[in-house]
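User: I'm curious what two different proteins look like when written out as structure tokens. Can you demonstrate?

Assistant: Sure. I'll show them one after the other, since each token string lines up with its own sequence. Here's the first protein:
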Amino acid sequence: MTLRNGIPVTTPARTISDLRGIAPEWELRRAIRQADLLGLPTGPVPGRDRTRSDLERDFLGICRRHRLPLPEVNVRVGRFLVDFLWRDQRLAIETDGYRYHRGRQAFEDDRVRGLELRARGFEVIRLSEKQVAEEPRSVAEVLRPILASRRHRVGADG
């Protein structure tokens, strides 16, 4: 516990820890997302899948249901945290909910991220919340041949 403006409060990491086991899963994820947006430390990422949002969890579900190779989740590439990464296939997927990717600054930030990832040799595919929620089969059908062809090319090259 610490004091903030003379009021005793717990740290964000402690608050998240206290919520585990008593708050519904969706509420815990929402609290972690909010702390992440504010840049507050929350401690270890909950769960083994490393997702930070319902949208990310839904995309990972598409990969599992459609038997796509599982990507790395929320990993750093250069100065950016990439939502999903198939490192060997040089493919990055960014899942974009409108709430967090609207406005000029978000638009510009997404373009900077995409350009830097391209400079590092990664193809970047951006998926909207609607595509993930309403078109999971189409998403999988587009990704499957990309991942397969890049796996073979990478394997053949070295």
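Here's a second, unrelated protein for contrast:
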Amino acid sequence: MEADYKAKIKKLLALAESPNEHEARAALLKARELMAEHKLSEIDLKDVGKQEVKDIVMDITCTKRRNPWIVNLSGIIAPNYCCKGYRKHQHGGQTQTIGFIGFENDVEICVAVFKYAVDCVLSANKATEKEYRRYGYGTDYIKKMCDSYGYGFVRGVSEAFEKQQEEKKQEWGWCW
């Protein structure tokens, strides 16, 4: 039964590969809803002891100057998928690498959602950069526009999770 809900969530995430941002958002929220529903019905104290905790270090990096919104995005997605997000960097270095820790099933879903969300923002930023360069805007202005979009996306994801949590609080019986 565990494999069934995991497969459903993976299929939902695969359907979320649409270039339509609203469709992607709806798919991400539905995946979270299914996860929460199954968490209540299938996981008890005995099952928790059998699950393996995984630590996945992503190949996604950022700095304070390059895609700084990525840290905030990981901080929103991780707890909403029952994981803990973290960042690490070399001593004296500026590049931060994102990682997630959680039960195996949870962390796999969290990583898939995070990768997809980052891809959505980077894709939109690439289109913005192309368009603004065509009109002769400078690099600093374009970077500010792209970072603003990234932070706005993070805020939108956060608000969507909060709204879903409020709507489903009675049904799920717990909240994050």
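A detail about the second structure: DSSP finds six helices and three strands in the chain.
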